[in-house]
Write a structure and sequence with these properties.
Largest sheet: 8 strands, mixed
Number of strands: 20
Bound molecules: zinc ion
Helix content: 25-40%
Length: 426
């Protein structure tokens, strides 16, 4: 039994407290205190449902030098995540029921965050032949995606949506038109021209989202079930507008945004530092403001990390040759708590929703409310500020574009089904 005393509660329904939360048998037993062996002082802190990340690259199997299930899932619980969807663009890609099952079993034995693997939509993620979705789902896959690559063949995506619809699985897309993107390493525009760097235009994202929404319309018209399309790491104002229009028209589409697109802009590339190299690229202030609007008005359903670890040696290459990606599992919540909530007044309740019920809805899971009887997969967040220090990361990627940023809202206790999986209480 654990008692968290004098703590404020926050979930998608709102804020309450302070209350004394008694936890035992994997559940919240009482919000009115009680006897417990372990007593935690929650004064000044708030307690939220455990976070769910829809988009993390844990690199296993095949690239364990960058990250593995242990380091990645430890990074997750340190970031307050109790549940995480791993991307299938590993080496080899996760495209068989055996591979999904192996990931699930290994992750379960680690006893950290709960792993919900995404499986490839097509064999080897080559965009040609669909994977056996029913068997993948039976093995534990919760999402189908060729993330890391774009789905060039609209017919294959349509067939994938039709197949997944019958199973109730969402299909997630990395929406970038490969032809328009070409060799772009940063946002296309005046700054890229000034720096002499190849640009990846916002139209590459918007054009692909527009196409994918038409593919969804087709699948919706042809399917007896409801196909669900999820747009990953949305980064542009125009892409956001397309998703907003589609939602208003009643299309079954959802979308996520990342911590880096919400807190950094293309201006960071002036340093030529490959730490800021990511796909889709960091965009303009105007795009970022549009994403913020989208978080508020429900166009965006979730904040997802796109945690993308690499070795420091790879990331220290010059900007043209370094790989794309930013690791962020351990800083995502404190970053947005500080930059959006504390500095800009973004509602805390909605921010927590974007880490909990929002991503849960994308997967078709029920919302979690902190009440007696609720599952005790929880995170305790402290307002105390400290700077980002990648040397302390559990992730193997011990570098960060946010190094030195002073943030509050750090997870100091993470529980999965009542079990402590991360503790950093003072
Ligand atoms: Zn992607």
């Amino acid at each position: 039994m654990i008692l968290i005393r004098n703590v404020r509660l926050v979930d998608a329904m709102g804020e309450r407290g302070p209350l004394d939360v008694l936890i035992g048998e994997g559940r919240i037993l009482s919000l009115e205190g009680g006897e417990a062996k372990q007593v935690v002082d929650g004064t000044g802190c708030f307690l939220a449902p455990g976070f769910l990340d829809l988009h993390a690259h844990l690199r296993e199997p095949g690239e364990e030098v960058k990250e593995d299930l242990f380091s990645g899932l430890l990074a997750a619980v340190r970031g307050g995540y109790t549940d995480l969807v791993s991307m299938p663009n590993t080496s080899p890609p996760v495209d068989t029921p055996e591979a999904v099952r192996a990931l699930r079993e290994k992750a379960k034995a680690l006893g950290l965050a709960r792993l919900h693997p995404a499986a490839a939509l097509t064999e080897k993620q080559e965009g040609k032949t669909l994977t056996p979705a029913g068997l993948l789902q039976e093995a534990g896959a919760v999402l189908l995606t060729d993330d890391g690559r774009t789905n060039e063949d609209a017919g294959v995506l349509a067939a994938g949506l039709l197949m997944a619809a019958v199973l109730g699985l969402p299909v997630a897309v990395h929406a970038e038109d490969a032809g328009l993107r070409r060799g772009g390493v940063m946002n296309d525009g005046a700054l890229a021209d000034l720096l002499g760097l190849p640009g990846n235009p916002p139209e590459a994202e918007a054009a692909r989202i527009a196409r994918d929404l038409e593919v969804l319309r087709y699948a919706l018209r042809r399917s007896p079930a409801t196909p669900r399309l999820h747009v990953q790491h949305l980064s542009t104002k125009r892409g956001l507008e397309l998703v907003r229009e589609a939602k208003r028209a009643g299309l079954p589409v959802t979308a996520e945004a990342t911590p880096h697109h919400l807190t950094l802009t293309e201006e960071a590339l002036r340093t030529f530092d490959p730490l800021f190299k990511v796909a889709p690229p960091l965009r303009t202030r105007e795009d970022q403001e549009a994403l913020l609007e989208g978080l508020l008005d429900g166009t965006l359903d979730a904040i997802a990390t796109d945690h993308a670890p690499h070795t420091l040696a790879e990331k220290e290459k010059d900007l043209l040759r370094a790989p794309f990606g930013i690791p962020s599992l351990e800083v995502a919540f404190p970053l947005l708590y500080t930059e959006l909530h504390l500095k800009r007044g973004f509602p805390l309740q909605r921010l927590v929703e974007l880490f909990t019920d929002g991503p849960r809805r994308v997967l078709g899971l029920s919302p979690i409310h902190l009440e007696e009887g609720a599952e005790a997969s929880l995170v305790l967040l402290s307002p105390k500020e400290r700077p980002v220090d990648p040397a302390r990361f559990a992730s193997k990627a011990r570098f960060s574009p946010w190094t030195g940023w002073r943030l509050g809202g750090w997870p100091v206790l993470t529980l999965v089904e009542g079990r402590i999986v991360h503790e950093a209480l003072e």
